[in-house]
Design goal:
Largest sheet: 7 strands, mixed
Number of strands: 20
Helix content: 25-40%
Length: 704
């Protein structure tokens, strides 16, 4: 019943034949072991407080500055930032756990970028490393396994859970309600007045009023309950001119690098300050028709396995509906050991298998009964596949021995049979917003060495565009239909504020299920990106509250300036550390949204020649005056100026040139003060950016 080879209709038809079990039901088949490991005992000893399961509903049924639905990492970042900025926040989560996939076995920060990204994301990442460094020692295997300094931070699910709980518990301005989901809203035109929440496993309801609402769930249930339009599935190739859209088959090209690819393409990408996967894929034609459909990429349970005999639980019986033939066929198609990743701290591994292709298509628009049935299907599939690998005679003895050395970690998911209670729903709904992030937003812009520029950037993508399989089909030497991995093709992109603003709504933000195509979504759908977007959404709510306006009226350019000041990555650079102490860091970030840089190299230590000084002061005058321009054209002009040789201009000369371009002689003295002792030195690009942003603020303090 669990086969990747079954159609969704067959799988869902089987729900009536015994798959309607609850998490508790599966836990009876997979017995609980109450004794956790040493690490879990340390975390759960009461040192970090747990929040109550459900707050007093009379308190929740009030009026809040911000109502956040979804206790995902992005939702927590949104709620915590808003509370720290003085807003009164309600956080509602459909399950009993906060932390989303961080606490449901994801076990890794999926990012290619090791640098600082956003304050709350950075705080959580530091907290994970500190937990293992302080609790086990700086030379311990646990701390080493957390991968300090590497983009991909590894962690145990129960550690992430407690850190996320503590992050929320420290904020007195957050009221938390668990086990409820939205069923209706009251709306006046584009303004949401209130949302009605219903108990997921019960009859209680409450109505919360809010000035601003943020849907930070993985399913966009609040936005949909409010009537927001959305997309499910894949767009056609020609709808947004996306080369990899719609029905598609890819094949992997070996060896790497491929002989037919210009070596400069590979070298240019290698210069990006990112972790790299050396692989290349090409489209199989003519079978890749690019036709649209309602398929989304497949899901799975992120099980946590361990080799530690004292913490390992190996079921001696499979789930009741186990079918060995199903798993024998899957094992022959995709070796599951390749998806055993780690090690995690404390001798654990995350298992990114099995993928049950088909049922995922009924999850996005399904009610919670259908969704929970799909979760149970994946839980049983995971238990069945492990049993098969450990016991089936078709599995070679040496392979069996490797898998018998592994078992479910006893100190994880103790209340649910040591398996997560949420499925990794990689793609559900995507709202229709005021802008849409497409494949082209993650690919180099024409004539530039960077992706298209967004003046209202609220975050960046840096993960390559990817998608897991959508259907079970293969042609010749292709992967499963729908699998996409655009390594060396997609590049870091900027995400427009308008993508989280649903059409027709003025006080609703959707930073998780934002406006994107299926292909564009593949660069966004990572928790680090969502955490940064959630925090950016909170700042939008704060600006709206300060100015007495709706979030839809917040100027995206002013929001980008606020985010740059508050150390949220709005522009990706190879050579600018967001947490650096240089006074020009925020200015460089902001001007990265205004086409002052035609590539990912800011070169802040380099001196400014005459041609670049002229191009930058002209661009600064346009920016400060609010003159509409084509950003791609501006970036190309800057690129040409960068290539012009010539002596460096002085700081004094640049200040005079900038003041003249802006048309404000009064800036001279004030920019002299900004430059300080550097006034007589050759001008560096970093200081030039600092002076340009200072001029903008002095000229229009409420605009920039």
């Amino acid at each position: 019943m669990f086969s990747r080879l079954c159609l969704a209709s067959v799988l869902l038809a089987d729900f009536g034949a015994g798959v309607h079990c609850s998490a508790a039901g599966l836990a009876q088949e997979l017995p609980r072991h109450a004794e956790p490991g040493a690490a879990a005992r340390a975390v759960r000893s009461g040192q970090l407080p747990r929040l109550p399961v459900t707050a007093d509903l009379s308190v929740a049924a009030g009026n809040f500055d911000l109502v956040v639905y979804g206790g995902t990492p992005g939702g927590i970042a949104c709620a915590v930032r808003a509370a720290r900025e003085g807003l009164r926040v309600l956080l509602v989560e459909h399950s009993r756990q906060l932390g989303g996939m961080f606490t449901q076995g994801l076990s890794v920060m999926d990012t290619l970028y090791a640098g600082a990204r956003a304050p709350i994301y950075d705080e959580v990442r530091r907290g994970i490393h500190d937990y293992y460094r302080i609790g086990y020692g700086p030379d311990s295997p646990q701390f080493v396994a957390s991968r300090p300094g590497h983009p991909k931070t590894y962690f145990e699910a129960h550690v992430a859970e407690q850190l996320m709980e503590d992050l929320v518990a420290r904020e007195a301005g957050i009221t938390v309600v668990r086990g409820f989901y939205p069923v209706a809203t009251e709306r006046e035109g584009g303004i949401l007045r209130s949302a009605k929440f219903q108990e997921k496993h019960g009859a209680r309801t409450f109505i919360a009023q809010g000035t601003t609402f943020a849907d930070c769930s993985y399913e966009a249930d609040l936005a949909v309950a409010a009537g927001a339009r959305y997309r499910v599935g894949r767009e056609a190739r020609d709808e947004f001119n996306e080369e990899h859209a719609g029905r598609i088959f890819l094949r992997k090209i070996t060896p790497f690098p491929p002989a037919h690819v210009d070596p400069e393409v590979i070298a240019r990408y290698k210069r990006l300050n990112l972790f790299h996967y050396d692989r290349w894929f090409e489209i199989v034609r003519p079978e890749s028709t690019g036709a649209a459909d309602r398929q989304v990429q497949t899901y799975n349970i992120r099980a946590v396995l361990t080799t530690n005999p004292g913490n390992r639980w190996i079921p001696d019986q499979p789930p009741g509906d186990y079918e060995a033939a199903v798993w024998r066929e899957m094992w022959n198609q995709k070796p599951p050991y390749s998806q055993l990743l780690g090690p995690l701290p404390n001798q654990k591994f995350l298992w990114n298998m099995p993928e049950v292709i088909g049922p995922q298509n009924d999850y996005p628009d399904g009610d919670w009964t259908i969704r929970e049935n799909i979760v149970e299907l994946h839980r049983r599939a995971t238990a069945s596949m492990l049993y098969f690998l450990q016991n089936d005679p078709s599995v070679p003895s040496d392979e069996q021995a490797r898998w018998r050395n592994l078992g479910f970690a006893r100190d994880e998911f103790i209340e649910s049979g040591h398996l997560p209670t949420e499925v990794y729903a990689r793609e559900t709904r995507r709202i229709i917003g005021r802008a849409i992030f497409t494949e082209n937003d993650a690919c180099l812009a024409p004539g530039l060495e960077r992706t298209p520029i967004q003046v209202d950037s609220i975050g960046v993508t840096e993960w390559f565009v990817d998608s897991h399989a959508s259907t079970l089909e293969r042609v010749r030497d292709s992967m499963f239909e729908g699998e996409i991995y655009l390594n060396y093709i997609s590049h870091p992109g900027q995400i427009s504020y308008r993508t989280i603003l649903p059409e027709g709504f003025d006080n609703l933000l959707v930073p998780i299920c934002l406006s994107a195509t299926h292909v564009g979504w593949g660069a966004i759908r990572l928790e680090p990106t969502w955490m940064a977007l959630g925090e950016s959404a909170a700042y939008a709510a704060v600006l709206a509250a300060e100015r007495g306006i709706a979030v839809s009226s917040v100027d995206g350019r002013q929001l980008a300036a606020k985010l740059a000041e508050r150390h949220i990555l709005v522009s990706f650079f190879n050579d600018v550390a967001l947490d650096g102490r240089e006074p020009w860091v925020a200015a460089v970030q902001l001007l990265g949204t205004q086409a002052f840089f035609p590539s990912y190299d800011a070169g802040t230590h380099l001196t400014v020649g005459g041609a670049l000084a002229e191009a930058w002061t002209a661009a600064a005058a346009e920016w400060i005056a609010g003159t509409p321009v084509d950003l791609n054209t501006r970036a190309q002009r800057v690129s040409m100026a960068e290539k012009s040789s010539g002596p460096a201009v002085s700081v004094e000369s640049f200040i005079r040139q900038l003041s003249a371009a802006v048309g404000d002689a009064s800036l001279l003295a004030r920019l002299h003060d900004e430059a300080g002792l550097a006034i007589a030195r050759p001008l560096t690009r970093g200081l030039a950016c600092q002076l340009i942003v200072a001029a903008a603020r002095l000229r229009s303090p409420n605009k920039h």
